[in-house]
Each structure stands twice: as C-alpha cells, then as structure tokens.
Amino acid sequence: MTEPQTSPYSLAQDAAATLAELTGIARHDLALVLGSGWLPAAEALGETTAEIDATELPGFSGAAVAGHSGRIRSVRVGDRQVLVFLSRTHYYEGKGVAAVVHPVRTAAAAGCGTIVLTNGCGGLNPAWAPGTPVLIRDHINLTGASPLVGATFVDLTDLYSSRLRGLARDLEPGLDEGVYVQFPGPHYETPAEVRMAGIIGGDLVGMSTTLEAIAAREAGMEVLGISLVTNLAAGISDQPLDHAEVLEAGRAAASRMGALLGKIVPVI
Ligand code: 8IG
C-alpha cells in the first residue's frame, strides 16, 4: 500500500510556519537566493534579525558544496523584511526538482511577493570579464525537468519581470541583460555545448535558477534574476574552469555586487 504523500505546497506551508516561529517574523516581503560567489555581497545588505539552519525547517536538507552554506537569514532592509537563502539545492544533487524549488515555495508561503534569484555562471560574451553582473532577461531550461506536475500550464512570458529589470537598470545604468541557459551539470560544458548555447540564443550558462523561476511564477511571485559572470564559458577563453576561481571572482566582485543588491532590494 502506498502512503499518502505530503504535497510540496503543504510542506512549504509547514516550513513557513516554522520559519515564522524560529525567526519571530510572521511575514517576509522579499526573498533573495544567493548563488556561487554572492555570499560576500549579501553580508552588508542590512541588519540580520535572525539566522537559522535550513535543516531546522521541514523539507530542507543539508548543503552539499564547499562555499554553499545551508543557512537562512531574516534581514531588515529599510522597511522590508528579506528572507535570504545563503545557498540553494541544485538539480545536480539528485534530490529531485521538488527539493530544488522548496525554498521558493517556502518563501511564497512566508508572504514574499518578489524573489531575487542570483547565480554564478559562465559568460559567452567575451566583453563580460569575471565579476560582471548581468540581468537575466529570459531563460532556456535544458534540464528536461519542470517543478510542476500534471496539467499545470503556467505562462512564462515575462518570467523575468521587465518592470523589475527596468528598475534595476535605472539604478545601475549600463547593466547588461542576457538569456540564461541551465544545463543539468554538475560538469561544466564542453566548448561545443557552449557554442550550441549561443546558437540557440543563450548568453549565460549555469546549473541553477530556471526551475526556481518557474516555481516562483507558479506561486505568483515577481522574479528578478541576476547572474554574476564568474568565468568565461568553456572554449570562449582558453582557460580551464575551476571552482576555486569561481569563489575568488565572487570575493573580488563582492563590493560591487553588494552595492547593487543594496540599491535594488529596498525598492523592488
Ligand atoms: I560559477 O561556466 C559557474 N557555474 N554550467 N557553466 C555552468 N555552470 C557554471 C559555470 C559555467 N560557471
């Protein structure tokens, strides 16, 4: 006999209720998910009013990668209460798509109407030196997976809100935009795969974000995606790719990214 499964939505409700208890904050306004290289940028965002381990909440499991810390912060930024996920579960961990998007659904259940998804990624445009931020204009999901199950035909037009992108560019003129291509990972691409990503319309290659954005849209959230180009994609430069260099690019870009987040978060 099969046990009845808890739906991912009620698990997220449970997580949001525990979050409210542990943080003492009944509702959050905005969620921020930090990708590779973004942790230093988020340190100066505002006053941390509570910090918990993700594993204290129903449905979350431990972090898997060095440089990814499984902590969740409640941060006061101006008049907003921001829920900051210091790390994410990646599709390549094999825990399933529901685990990947559980933080997003928890944020929605906690009251967040807006989510800022950040990531570290490879860039196809040689003009994007490591440490360049790029707004995600649209995505191509090459995982072959979806967080949605059944006849859930969610519209993904303007998934990465043109309103929020416009606000970000008002605050940071010259901020470039690009199409983010999510590969399943965990290996980086071959140069031929990077060329393919460019031919099909991509500008950025990475291993996260698209499934979370889809779940956020399903939940009715407005999405802002910001990539930090930490390396030129394979074959764009003749340098081999290295995770330590990814983290170093994040550290080097921290003050610029911190200033960017500090400008954007209070007004979206
Ligand atoms: I940071 O070049 C980072 N993450 N797929 N390709 C993919 N993911 C990445 C890359 C990259 N850099």
Account of the 3D structure:
The protein is of the alpha/beta class. It has one domain (8-267): Nucleoside phosphorylase domain (Rossmann fold), CATH 3.40.50. The chain is 31% helix and 24% strand. It has a 5-stranded mixed beta barrel with strand order 5-8-7-6-9, surrounded by 4 helices. Helix 1 crosses helix 3. The termini are far apart. The model has no long low-confidence stretch (mean pLDDT 91). The structure holds 8-iodo-guanine (8IG). 8-iodo-guanine binds at residues 36, 120-122, 183, 185, 188-189, 205-207, 230-231, 233, 241, 246.
Assigned CATH class: Alpha Beta
Order of strands in the sheet with most strands: 5-8-7-6-9
Q: What is the ordering of alpha helices and beta strands?
A: HEHEEEHEEHEHEHEH
Number of domains: 1
**Distance, first to last CA:** 48 Å
| Strand elements, count | 9
Please state the second-level CATH architecture: 3-Layer(aba) Sandwich
CATH superfamily: Nucleoside phosphorylase domain
Mean pLDDT: 91
- Structural class determined from secondary elements: alpha/beta
Q: Looking at the structure, what is the overall shape?
A: globular
Based on CA atoms alone, the radius of gyration comes out at 17 Å
CATH topology, what is it called?
A: Rossmann fold
Proportion of residues in β-strands: 15-25%
Helical content stands at: 25-40%
Number of helices: 7
Q: Largest beta sheet, briefly?
A: 5 strands, mixed, barrel
Low-confidence stretches: none
